Amino acid sequence: MSEKVPSSSSHSNTLADLLPNAAREHGSAAAFKFKNDSGVWETSSFDQVLDEVRELSLGFVELGVEPGDRLSILGNTRPEWTLFDFAAMTAGAVVVPIYQTNSPNECEYVLEHSGARFIVVEDQEQLEKIQAVRDSLPDLEQIIMMLGEAEGAISMAELKKRGAAVDSSTFKDRYEAVTRDDVCKIVYTSGTTGPPKGCVLSHGNYRATLDMADEADILGAGETTFLFLPLAHVFALLVQYGALDVGGTIAYWERDPLRIVPSLAEVKPENFPSVPRIFEKVHDTIIAGAANAGGIKAAMFKWAIRVGMRMREVEDEGKTPGFLLKKEYEIADRLVLSKIRDVFGGRLKIALTGAAPIDPEILRFFHAAGINLLEAWGMTETSTGGTANLPGAQEVGTVGRPLPGVDAKISEDGELLVRGDNVFQGYYRNEEATREVLVDGWLHTGDLASIDDDGYVTITGRKKEIIITAGGKNITPVNIEAMIKRHPLVSHCVVIGDRRPYLVALITLDQEALSQFAAEQGTLDEPAAMAGNEEVQETIEKHIEEVNTHFAPVEQVKRFQVLPADLTQEGGELTPTMKLKRPVITTKYAEQIEALYST
Predict the structure, then answer these.
(1) CB distance 381 to 348 below 8 Å
(2) CATH number of this structure's domain 378-387+402-421+431-463, picked from the four choices 3.30.70.270, 3.10.520.10, 2.30.38.10, 2.40.30.170
(3) CB–CB of 377/298 below 8 Å?
(4) How far apart are CA 260 and CA 74, in angstroms?
(5) Which of 206, 149, 165, 198 is nearest to 182 (CA)?
(6) Which has the closest alpha carbon to 488: 251, 311, 326, 292?
(7) 15 within 8 A of 234, measured Cβ to Cβ
(8) Sheet containing 154-155: which strands, arranged edge to edge?
(9) Which one-letter DSSP state was computed for residue 178?
(10) N or C: which end of the chain has fewer CB within 10 A?
């Protein structure tokens, strides 16, 4: 890979020199925005962030961190995560992120497999996970804490103090010695179909993706990006680097899921990257609120959405709206659409969704309200980036076109293949798996897809998730699940049917929608009790019957079971980005599945 300096706002060559270069250009501008202990939003400038990173980086050097050493970070998305990330990279270390929701055994797997010598933990809770498995990690030498102090760990303040003893010129020497070919991250996949694999990403891989984002003009200088996604995921990492790269501000969430929407209203960001579930919840809440208002307000809401959709259609066709449509839109916007935008703070330029499929109807709804909700596709193996819908170049129902520098094609069996400088180096300590996915320079993504004449990519399913019925029919469950999930009562849906005579579904209930439904029925809303509620069963059954009309007989769900509790990360059924762990679910609910086929 060449050592050329890309044309980016920070003029960085690697992620190691990204922050120093960005600070030189945007020194006094706000880099971080976060709530302090008093509940007040405050900011840190690029200069302040760089000063802290320098202190921590030199502390790592004094601690014995050498270029190429694996250093893990375990914690919630917060400013300190970013500080330690850049401190490790500027010292030449390879960062190995771990999800804050991981169990002690899952942490043990990543640390042992990567051979990490050091780990930064967020607090006492995360420290206890590592202490529980410490005896089985001979390579692990030091634990550093972001917050607080504890026996057997080095505090953030102590690390900075140690760094004061190191020649300050070492900081620049270390980060300038990092090349684009050096490994930047080893990011472990979520393990939806098997044990996690460590994706080796070089500085050049991530820098290539940032260059693609720069060329696509996704993030801008001086813009605020609200970040709540887990920084152990490549999507969040790219957002973090991209915002700082162009001189933007990262606004960190309050680490409370119930505070995401209120924080958006307070921060008023220009950019909001998220997984589909957040947009689904906001959409469902707004729709339910309008329905509850009833009468003329509910009718006005529906009318306003229709007007918004007509306006977007005219704009997308490059036409000028007529006098009547303009006037209708002015009224619709004042009474309804602007209030939907205000949920996100009212200044949103781009809302980006990825990591999982999103219902096209939700995209159309937000587009009607004037919210540029864009769907993109990528994977850990592509350093996040791959394809994206962009302002002025979007097609609802697709994941957009390949980003600049990415080539895409469809194999004979329908698999999406991509290549580009953003494609990873391979799986750490797993040459066999690497050879399976990297063939002649092309990454075999595992996604089934199509590409239309205009270059837009549509993902139709996962090769490993294809259901082959007892009759030999191939069925993609994702499409069926997505339509069943459109009902407000449905939180998650898992379609089963591999080697079976017909399809069945496991359904979980959405607690907020369930509470409203229970209030209307005058019954309790506890999920376990409501799972067998006759009205709930009839409602879900009618919905599935309607969904079945959109599919061929072999693709129709014949029976279903409402589970007593929702699927969760803590229960092991979902990844941190809310993807289904199908092997876990089918094993955990084997008895319920068998009952659907035996009665």
Answers:
(1) no
(2) 2.30.38.10
(3) no
(4) 21
(5) 206
(6) 292
(7) no
(8) 154-155, 142-145, 118-121, 70-74, 94-98, 183-188, 198-202, 426-427
(9) -
(10) C
**Which H/E stretch holds residue 177?**
helix 169-177
CATH number for the region 466-598 comes to 3.30.300.30
Ranges of CATH 2.30.38.10 domains, the chain: 378-387+402-421+431-463
pLDDT per 10-residue tile (average), the chain, 599 residues: 44 93 96 94 97 98 97 98 98 97 92 97 97 96 97 96 96 97 93 78 96 87 94 94 96 93 95 89 87 89 96 90 94 95 94 85 94 94 94 90 95 94 96 94 93 94 78 79 88 89 91 78 69 87 92 89 88 80 87 87
Task: Say which residue the tokens 């350093």 belong to.
Answer: 383
Say which CATH topology domain 18-209+231-240 has. Answer: Rossmann fold (3.40.50)
pTM of the predicted protein model? 0.84
In order of 95, 375, 458, 526, the CA distances from 351 in angstroms are 28, 9, 19, 33
> Dihedral angle at the C-alpha atoms of 492, 574, 512, 494, nearest 10 degrees?
10
